[in-house]
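User: structure tokens for this one?
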Amino acid sequence: MTATTEIPGYLTGTWTIDAVHSNVSFIVRHLGVTKVRGRFTELEGTLTTADNVLDSSVTAMMTASSVDTTNSQRDEHVRSADFLDVDNHPTLTFRSTGVRTDGEDYLIDGELTLRGVTKAVTLTAELGGFGDGMTEGSKVIGVSARTEIRRADFGIGANIPAAVVSDKVVIELDIEAIRED
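Assistant:
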């Protein structure tokens, strides 16, 4: 029995991320007392669901300059060399290297590249399911995922003390993708 037989309505195929109905966001603590949230408004990528879900894969790319924290002054600082350095590193990328299970959770192992630094990360993922799309005959998939990284591992904000902006960054994804025919 493959893992796919346990997922109701499972569909194989290649799926294109629908940026309008997807969200890639991050959360960091500011001054140790509050959480600041941001998101990337420009993203693209592909999910491939295989006959066995554990053979599936994902690639994604976010435009670094599309960061939006709802504060333009802060956004400019996050785009600067202090943090994302968008002039030298215009994209952030993720490429999966494997899918596995841990109890009822799906874990997506992969490589995250920020500021030109690539590190292994593991996303804890939840399959939202499969459904009918907005146009006749189209199909969609929904996936949510979460991981934590240390900004220091990627050389982000090296001159910004962790007491000001936490070293821990939570990344959350809510992805809707459309099946390619």
